[in-house]
Every structure is written in C-alpha cells, then in structure tokens.
C-alpha cells in the first residue's frame, strides 16, 4: 500500500492506469490521456482525465484547506464521508448525483462521472441563465434524500449506524458550526466585508434577538440528528445544463435537521435574487430573472412538500409515526395531521437556517460569487444590505413567516429598498 | 480469555478471587465470602458479595431479557453503555452514582459499591416514606449530568465521539421507542391493563391529537441528540436512605433530549401521587405524603433550573451559545435570554415525555409497583384513570402548561375526580 500522496497530473496518470474502472472507460493506453488539474474550490484537488474514448473526474482531498494552506489542516477522511454520502444519495434519488467509478480511501480520492456540458449553477445565476427543471429537480432531491435518510424510512439500526458513521465528520461540522453560525455575529478574525457596510454590521452584531436566534439555530444544527444532510447545499454545489441538475460535493455530510439543506439552498437563491441589480447593464434588465429566482424559491419548497408528502404516505417504514398507530387504526387523518406537524417544523427550521446563511455569505469568510462579482462597491453594498435585512427577518420570524410572506418581503425590500 | 458465561454464585466467587479491586475490599480468602443472587429487575443478574471486611455488588448482563426469557434476546454490550454512563455520571455529579471497582467487558460484568442501607425509592413511595434531600439531589443530578454531557460544556469532538459511542445502544433504545412511545397507543401484543379500564383506553387510543403528540415526542426522543441521558430515570432507578440519594442502572443511556430524564422522573413522582389513595388505610391518611410528592415534583424542577442556570453562567465552554457572542460583547442579558429560551424548550419536551411515561406505565408492558401493589382493582382503576387523564393533558398542552398549572391540575384531578 502506498501512503497518501497528493497527486500531480503525471502521478495520477500512473495511478489510474491500473484501475479497471478507469481503463474500461478511457482505454488502457494511459499515455494518450489528457490530465488537467481544474480545482477552483476551497478544499481539494480536482482533475479531469480524458481520452478519445471517454472522460472522468478525480477529486482528491488535501490534508489542509487549499484556499488557506497548510496552516489550516483538514482531515483526509472527509473523502470517506463524501463517498458514503454520494452512494447514499445515488440510491435515494437515482440520477441526481455523479456516478462513482472508484474510491481509494488511502489516497482520499474519488473517481467519478465527468459532468459535461454542465456548469456550476452559481455561474448561471450570475449571468442570468434560467434552468426550467431546477426547482423540480431540487425539490425532489431534497425530499427523497432527507426522507429516505431519516427514521421515517430507514430501519433504526441502520439509521443509528449512519448517525455514528457521519458523527465522525467533526472537522467539517466544525467549519459549519463556526463559519455559518458564530463568526458572522462577532468580529472574528477571518471575517471580511464590503467597505461601507460597517453601520449595518454593527447594528446586526448588537441585535440581541438576532444573535440569540442564530445560536438557537446552531443548537438545532448540532443537536437535531434527523437525517443525512448534504451539509453544503448552495448553488456552488449544483451543476446544471439546460435540462439536467446534478448535486455534487457532499463532503460536509452529517446527520442534521431536515430543514438545513432546504434553508441553505433557499438562502442562496435569495442571495442570487438580491445580487441581480448589481449585474444589470440597464436598470430592470434582470427583472424577469429576479422573478424566476423567486419562482424557483417557491417551487423548490412546493415540490419538496409534495414529494415528502407522497413518500410519507407510501414509504413510511421507519420507527417514527408508524402506520400501526394511524392508518392501520382506520385514522389516516391522524397521519395527515402528523405530516403537517412535521412539515411545519421543517419549514420553521429551514427559515432559521436561511437567514443565517444569508448573513454569513455577506459577513463571514466564505462569500458568494453572486455578490463578489459585482464590481461596483456601492451597488454590492446595496444588495448586501438587503440580504442582511431579509436574513434577519426570516430567522427572527421563522415561526411566523409563510412562503408568500417571504416572497412578498423579498420583493418589497428589493423594490422599495426597505433594508 | 474465557468466553462469556452467566455467573453462578460459585463461579462468580472463583472469578472475583483474582481481581485485586475485589480482594482489597473483601480480603483474599474468597472461601469465606457470602455470595447471593438478588436480582429482581427485568434484565440482569445481580449479586451481593460480602465478607467481614466489606461488601460489593456485581451486575452481570444476560443475553436475553430475564423477565421474558431467551425468546427476547438482548445484547450483552449494554453493560458497556452502563459502564460508560456510570463513569461519566461520576465525573459530572460526583458522589451521586455507585463507585465502580471493576469492569469486565467480555463477561458483561460490573463490580460496584454495595449501597446500604439504601432502598429503592419506589418502595419508599409505596410505603409513604419521605426523603428530605430527594428533590435537591435529583435536581442537581439532572442539571449536572445533562449540562455537562452536552455541547454546552464538552469539546465538540468529545461530544460527537460520545454520540457515536452511545448510538450503538440500539437494542435498549428500541425498547424505549416501542414500549414507551408506540405500544401504549394501540393494541400491541405485550400490553396489559387493569380490568375495567377499557373504556378509558379506547378513548385514549382513538384520541387523534394524543397519538400525534406521542409520536412527536418519539420523534424528539429519536432525533434530538442533545446530551447523554440516563434513559430510564424512574423511581426504580434511584436508591435512597434518610439522607442519601444514588442513581443506578443507566444501561439505557443514549444521546437524547435534555427533557427526557426530567419528564420521565416527574411522571414517576406523579404516578406515585395518584397511587397514594390506593394505599390509604383510612381516607386521607396519605394526604401529607401526596403533598410531599408534589413538592418533590416542583422542587426537582426548581433545583434543576437553578443549577442549570448556574452552570450556564459559569461552565458554558462548549460550542453552543458561546460567551464570545454574548458576555464578551458586553451583553450578558443576551446570554440570559438564550438561557430562558433553552430552559423553555427543555420544559416543553419534559412535559411531553412526562405524559407519555404516565400512559405507558398504565397501558404498556412495564407497569409500576406504586399502582400494581394496590390490591383492590377498583381503587387501582381510579388511580390509573387519573394518571391517564393528567398524562393526556400535559403532553397535549406541553407548550402551554406551567409547573403551577401542573400541580394544580394534579390536585384537581385527585380531589374532584376529574378524570
């Protein structure tokens, strides 16, 4: 066994030449393969390996955060969690995640489908490209992965074994715990923000109710082990074509609340929404795209609810809300009542997470290209103020707000500059 | 290494003769030790081993449920969870659990302090004996073990490692999941109940809101991994003298909600309360004892709140509600606001669990001696009706009820027979 070594394009070529799952796709003459390192994420090496016969992607973890360097070590084992999440996602929502061809745990290396001509959804949102299937695909993905990873569906021993497996993903959970829930709310070392935003930041960081609410959401993230969450489901973790949607990069996977992935994803749609004005060449030329992003926000949740409800009625084989107590007693309405109760809890959590995610993308370490690519500081500042304001409102009012209220408030904040 | 074998008094004597932790307490001449099997619980072998020099208790798990026989297998590994919970409890609330002298994982055998002249608290409640320190001791135990086992206190990697460790306690969690939360609410095979109670049982089992609420509590039990809970904290798991209180038998330990142990314990006080009338030789001769049980209910919660609040202010070193966001920003009231919010959540959960525990002790497999020892069926039935009624009220109204309301309602149900 060869000890872990970060790959170069040449060492990767040599390593893959002996892997049948690779040679059956690219051919056995590895000398003709084109190998390129293309990683632009924060954490890992990413290679595309191509021949005339085919292509694939290789993702290799580095023992530190790529963006920062070896001063920030990060366990290689995250590739184990990514691999385990990917194979579960593939089972639970077939076709929505890249197929895995090969996994090498020692090298922390996953070989998988090369997605082409897919682009990162966030790039589409920055350039203003619509994807008609996005909301449906993501609503289904959320419902299926979250329902089928939970005690609503899995046998209890399997759910508890997976809880134990993913609870070891300590280092990546730690990143979320700090960067999403805590750092944005005080003057933490790695935070950064747009010049001129200080007065609004001071207001938020002295907002007692907001800080308590953000910490309540951290409490929920840390303690509610409801299902296997992707853990980093923003628009940079989704790849799209005109027709297709693929969900990638679940290395932050952990058992967490049903509402976490949902809230984070909706927040990223809303960040995209507020960013649009910064990308307009003439005022209003992104108005239709803005509306589309709100429709995606609404429809993602709507599809989630419909599919989650369908699975509740047809696949509820776990230990929670057993049919023996409801349908089998001739009281299907009890099951519907419980479903509404569960959906309500998911929504409230999702809204709490949504607001916190909007804040950290403006105030914390990891910003979003939607806003970062607005070159005019003053236009970016306006968009960011709006995101801060909506984020505060939805987290604080998570037990009150409706989807209609969320959409209407986003529009009012945008149009009347209520921030 | 000798394979696991259930002990007899003689094989145990031989086995312990070579254990220094035993011989230093009992002397090296094992032939003079008095060894007796005294287990009267549902699951295990329990031995008292005594010499002129000292005494100790040996608890050995059997590979099945003792009460039922080998038709109901149960993993020996539960002794690992019991051992691990006991050493954590000893650290977190020193002096409140029996000291462990020796643990043999292969033999599933724990050697520990012989508690004498302690009696099981439930026996005291049946006979009407007061224990002045009970509420204070249990309030402190609950606050210290629950706070110090959580992400309010522990370093996150340690909390996550313990979550993983105890998540393997699948078989005993399964018992709770079924016997506490599900079986009581339908005609499950192992249920039993007092003759004549059927009309009230039918009413409860067709009570849609109650069944949905009970399943919501099961959802919370299964998914809220907030802290290490004892998992079976009823009055049979507490041993008392006039002065002392000891908490035993944490083999059901698992990561669960803050409110679980609290709700279960308060429910057992309230079951004791309603049972008193069945033990009166003349009407009213247990009135003072009834009042005392209500004061224990009130004070256990009161002491819990005071101690949990003290720990919150002085030992909040975990990743939740960090001082960096509150006190260190000059806003200690934010920390107090968050504390109230957390205590509120604990109370609501505790009330939900309290009602369900009251129900299952009347309707399920495992009843309580408080009620079982009432020889007159009609008097037991009255007590049980009252327990069912209060249980229903507190679970359904868990988000509304106060401690004052709980006490007042218990008294009204008892005095005016509102059940």
From TrEMBL, chains A, B:
Domain Aminoglycoside phosphotransferase: 34-269
Keywords: ATP-binding, Kinase, Nucleotide-binding, Transferase
GO molecular function: S-methyl-5-thioribose kinase activity
Known EC number: 2.7.1.100
Keyword Nucleotide-binding assigned: yes
A Pfam family the protein falls into: APH
Taxonomy, superkingdom: Bacteria
Family in the record: Belongs to the methylthioribose kinase family.
Complex formation: Homodimer.
Protein name (record): S-methyl-5-thioribose kinase
Phylogenetic classification of the source organism: Bacteria, Pseudomonadati, Pseudomonadota, Alphaproteobacteria, Rhodobacterales
């Amino acid at each position: 066994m060869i000890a872990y070594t970060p790959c170069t394009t040449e060492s990767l070529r040599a390593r893959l030449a002996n892997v049948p799952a690779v040679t059956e796709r690219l051919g056995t003459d590895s000398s003709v393969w084109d190998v390129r390192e293309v990683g632009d994420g924060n954490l890992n090496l990413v290679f595309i390996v191509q021949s005339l016969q085919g292509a694939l992607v290789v993702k290799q973890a580095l023992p530190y955060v790529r963006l920062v360097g070896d001063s920030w070590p990060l366990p290689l084992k995250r590739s184990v969690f990514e691999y385990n999440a990917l194979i579960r996602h593939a089972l639970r929502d077939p076709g929505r995640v890249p197929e895995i061809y090969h996994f090498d745990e020692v090298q922390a290396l996953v070989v998988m489908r090369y997605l082409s001509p897919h682009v990162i959804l966030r790039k589409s949102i920055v350039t203003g490209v619509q994807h008609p299937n996005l909301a449906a695909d993501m609503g289904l993905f959320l419902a299926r992965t979250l329902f089928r990873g939970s005690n609503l569906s899995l046998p209890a021993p399997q759910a508890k074994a997976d809880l134990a497996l993913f609870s070891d993903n300590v280092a990546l959970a730690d990143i979320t715990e700090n960067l999403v829930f805590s750092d944005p709310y005080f003057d933490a070392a790695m935070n950064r923000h747009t010049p001129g935003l200080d007065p609004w930041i001071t207001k938020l960081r002295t907002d007692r109710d907001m800080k308590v609410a953000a910490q309540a959401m951290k409490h929920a993230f840390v303690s509610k082990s409801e299902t296997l969450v992707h853990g980093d489901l923003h628009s940079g973790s989704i790849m799209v074509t005109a027709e297709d949607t693929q969900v990638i990069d679940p290395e932050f996977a952990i058992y967490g609340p049903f509402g976490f992935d949902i809230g984070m994803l909706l927040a990223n749609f809303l960040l995209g929404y507020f960013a649009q004005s910064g990308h307009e060449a003439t005022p209003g030329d992104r108005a239709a795209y803005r509306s589309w992003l709100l429709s995606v926000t609404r429809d993602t949740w709507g599809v989630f609810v419909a599919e989650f409800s369908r699975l509740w009625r047809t696949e509820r084989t776990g230990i929670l809300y057993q049919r023996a107590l409801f349908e089998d007693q001739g009281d299907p309405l009890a099951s519907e009542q419980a479903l509404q109760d569960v959906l309500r809890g998911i929504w409230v959590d999702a809204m709490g997470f949504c607001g916190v995610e909007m804040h950290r993308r403006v105030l914390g370490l990891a910003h979003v290209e939607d806003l970062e690519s607005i070159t005019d500081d003053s236009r970016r500042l306006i968009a960011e103020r709006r995101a801060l304001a909506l984020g505060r409102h939805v987290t604080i009012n998570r037990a009150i707000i409706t989807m209609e209220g969320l959409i209407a408030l986003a529009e009012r904040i945008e149009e009347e500059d209520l921030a």
